């Protein structure tokens, strides 16, 4: 019997595999695999969400006007140039579907977020993967890969899973070298954690350019991964497209309430940033001291380097035996590395203790 068959190419897509949350036989686990905030959401979020529970029969406010205004105030940008999304990943898909299709090419860096090729393939476009240099995006290589078929360049800054970043001068050099008809999509999911003195958000560049989009998320420093809220700052010509292709009511009402409450609690956000600023170098130094080099990171995670793929797998197995879940990154082409989220003080100490025991075994 014949069955419906999907559009050509869809079954060739490798589905995204999220980080694990459980370990068989372990009642209590430490999950430091998905770059979630160890401080969780602001206490003000749960209070605000409770106030919206008596309106679950009503559709959410489609344009997310209140949230966009709150974002405009918090980041000093124009509300009319903000588009909210169901997590920042939805924005990747909207951009790919809107600006690329069969016969087009979309560029991303070798160790970029795995959602990029998925969004590109779903759109029917061709993914062009550009090699990195020392785990950093290579601007010259990206520019060399541009052809008349190029429609979008996806670039995470800071990058996941490496934690590396490009300074403002390099981002501007990339933009200056791109044809005006190529969209530069800057994924800044971890921007709030970045402390490097030469790191600058692309928001200012996007303010003056017709082909730059900056996407952000509430899943990381704001601790709202469960409710799925993202947002992007776009030129008006891109906004005009996005409001036509986004799903109706794509950000649910409770998510909008939660995001507004999170934005309003600056003290909680600063505490999350301070916690990461304290523990990121402490965990990095502790692992380096036991012979596990760490890639310098501007995110809320580290990329730990092992001797080879077998060593990384053995370390992962040892951590799991201690009830600790981290993220193997062989799927990114980095089989000799493990990505580790900065957790609570207790979780970080447990991680260091477990890996110390592993190295001594």
From TrEMBL:
Enzyme nomenclature, EC number: 2.6.1.9
Pfam families in alphabetical order: Aminotran_1_2
Associated pathway: Amino-acid biosynthesis; L-histidine biosynthesis; L-histidine from 5-phospho-alpha-D-ribose 1-diphosphate: step 7/9
Cofactor entry: pyridoxal 5'-phosphate
UniProt xrefs under CDD domains: AAT_like (cd00609)
GO biological process, one term: L-histidine biosynthetic process
Record-linked InterPro entries: Aminotransferase_I/II_large (IPR004839), HisP_aminotrans (IPR005861), HistidinolP_aminotransfase (IPR050106), PyrdxlP-dep_Trfase (IPR015424), PyrdxlP-dep_Trfase_major (IPR015421), PyrdxlP-dep_Trfase_small (IPR015422)
GO MF annotation terms: histidinol-phosphate transaminase activity; pyridoxal phosphate binding
Keywords: Amino-acid biosynthesis, Aminotransferase, Histidine biosynthesis, Pyridoxal phosphate, Transferase
Residues of the Aminotransferase class I/classII large domain: 29-355
SUPFAM superfamilies: PLP-dependent transferases
Coiled coil: none
Reactions listed under catalytic activity: L-histidinol phosphate + 2-oxoglutarate = 3-(imidazol-4-yl)-2-oxopropyl phosphate + L-glutamate
Modified residues (N6-(pyridoxal phosphate)lysine): 220
Family from the record: Belongs to the class-II pyridoxal-phosphate-dependent aminotransferase family. Histidinol-phosphate aminotransferase subfamily.
Quaternary structure, from the entry: Homodimer.
UniProt-listed HAMAP family: HisC_aminotrans_2 (MF_01023)
Name of the featured protein: Histidinol-phosphate aminotransferase
Lineage of producing organism: Bacteria, Pseudomonadati, Pseudomonadota, Alphaproteobacteria, Emcibacterales
